[in-house]
């Protein structure tokens, strides 16, 4: 089997396993992290009503001007701080972290650290 196909299937399998254990509510939504080669995205999701309560990404116009690159650790920290600020403005102080099948390392960890430093608890 193709090596890239095996990697993609492993990521999908890990993501399904994590999603089976992690669920968000309105009081404590799920902080979902999506990482691509060129950008990073974060959403606060209420799984009961299936709605997105707040979001931030390295594509946002207010962040894009201050970022040199949308795919580095500094961008991930900025996105984490932005989603935490938007969550606190919406009255959300505590979340469940969903790493999306990725390792808690690098950009995923930087986003979590940025959100924690901005006042979000998880």
Count of discrete alpha- or pi-helical segments spanning 4 or more residues: 4
Runs in which pLDDT lies below 50 for 5 or more consecutive residues are: none
Query: Kindly state the mean pLDDT as a whole number?
Result: 94
* Strand adjacency order, main sheet: 3-2-1-4
Based on secondary structure, the structural category is alpha+beta
What characteristic shape results from the CA principal axes? globular
The portion of residues assigned to helices is 40-55%
User: What is the succession of H and E elements?
Assistant: HEEEHHEH
Q: How would you characterize the largest beta sheet? A: 4 strands, mixed
Classify the beta-strand content into a percent band: 15-25%
Report the span from N to C terminus: 39 Å
- Tell me the Rg in angstroms: 14 Å
The total count of strands amounts to: 4
Structure summary:
It is built from four helices and four strands; from the N terminus they run αβββααβα. It is of the alpha+beta class and 122 residues long.
3D structure, described in words:
By secondary structure, the protein is α+β, with helices and mostly antiparallel strands. The chain is built from four helices and four strands, in the order αβββααβα. The protein has a four-stranded mixed β-sheet. A hairpin with a 4-residue loop joins strand 1 and strand 2. The longest helix is centred in the first third of the chain and has 19 residues, at 3-21.
């Amino acid at each position: 089997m193709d090596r890239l196909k095996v990697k993609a299937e492993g990521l999908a399998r890990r993501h399904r396993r994590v999603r089976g254990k992690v669920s968000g509510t309105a009081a404590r939504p799920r902080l979902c992290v999506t990482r691509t080669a060129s950008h990073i995205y974060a959403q606060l999701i209420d799984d009961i009503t299936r709605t997105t309560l707040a979001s931030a990404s390295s594509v946002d116009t207010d962040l894009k001007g201050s970022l040199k690159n949308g795919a580095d650790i500094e961008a991930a920290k900025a996105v984490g701080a932005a989603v935490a600020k938007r969550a606190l403005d919406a009255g959300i102080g505590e979340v469940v972290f969903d790493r999306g099948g990725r390792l808690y390392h690098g950009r995923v960890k930087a986003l979590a650290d940025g959100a924690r430093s901005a006042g979000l608890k998880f």
